[in-house]
Structures are given as C-alpha cells and as structure tokens.
Amino acid sequence: xxxxxxxxxxxxxxxxxxxxxxxxxxxxxxxxxxxxxxxxxxxxxxxxxxxxxxxxxxxxxxxxxxxxxxxxxxxxxxxxxxxxxxxxxxxxxxxxxxxxxxxxxxxxxxxxxxxxxxxxxxxxxxxxxxxxxxxxxxxxxxxxxxxxxxxxxxxxxxxxxxxxxxxxxxxxxxxxxxxx
Length: 180
What we know:
PH-domain like, four-stranded antiparallel beta sheet, three-stranded antiparallel beta sheet, 180 residues, alpha+beta, DUF304 domain-containing protein, 2 domains
C-alpha cells in the first residue's frame, strides 16, 4: 500500500463448505461420473481383469472423488485463505489455493460492478464481466478459457461495501469534492 492509501473496508468471504446455484446441475453430473468410475474400477478388480484395466480406472475414480467432494473442500480452503480490502485508491483481493495471489483493481479504472444478494444480507460483488465463475474454476489445465472476473464473494453487508466503493470512486474522480 502507498503512504496515501487508507483502508476503508476489509473482510473475508463466507467460510466453510458452500453450495452454489450451479451445483444443481453439477452435482448430478459428478455423481454419474464418479459412480461410473467406481463401478468400472470395482468391476475390473473383482473380475480379475488384467492389470492395465485395473490401473486405467484409477485416474477416473480420483477425478470422480474430487468432483463429488474434493472440490467443496478445495473451495472452502481457498476462501479460508482469501481476504478483501477496499482502500481510497483501489480494491484488493488476496488469496490463492496453492500460491498467494494479489489482485489489485484501481478505483479510477474499476470496471462495472454487479451485486448479487442472498436473503441474509450476504452477497457477492463482481467487478466486470467475464466467463462464468464456476466453470472458470474448473479449468483442468486448459488455460484457453478466460478467467472469472474478480469478485468479493459471500461478504456480509455487501450493499454497504458497494456503496463504500462508489463513494471512494466519487471522491477520487471528483477533485472538487476531495478539496472541500
């Protein structure tokens, strides 16, 4: 942070295991994938199939287990290591699953914001537009799809945080208001 920067708000995403609306479609797919992979592997082992066939199913079982349960724990772990900060000059997202990443968005050039509220006053602030955040998280090594837009996910008082960012933008972009 620079000497002129002041922290206006800081917070963390919702902690623990979390379901998203996209899980309504993805959970059945993951159960079918994992179920078939486990069926294949069990059948191969029980029938005395050649070693290659028993070995062939292991990666599919591992992917199936990740899709069924592991992705929820990886997501919770990543959110547990994530922090959000709004200063008078920028928005910061600090986090990362395996390595620390810092996303810095200048208030002067901050893209369009959108707010999605849950019933409990928690919400998600998304900065800009882009690929669907859920499918963006599932890029298994295929880095050709665009990353999801930066967001403050599952934060309390999300509407107030959005207002705080808008006020900071207005103060930064309107030098007359800052001087008074």
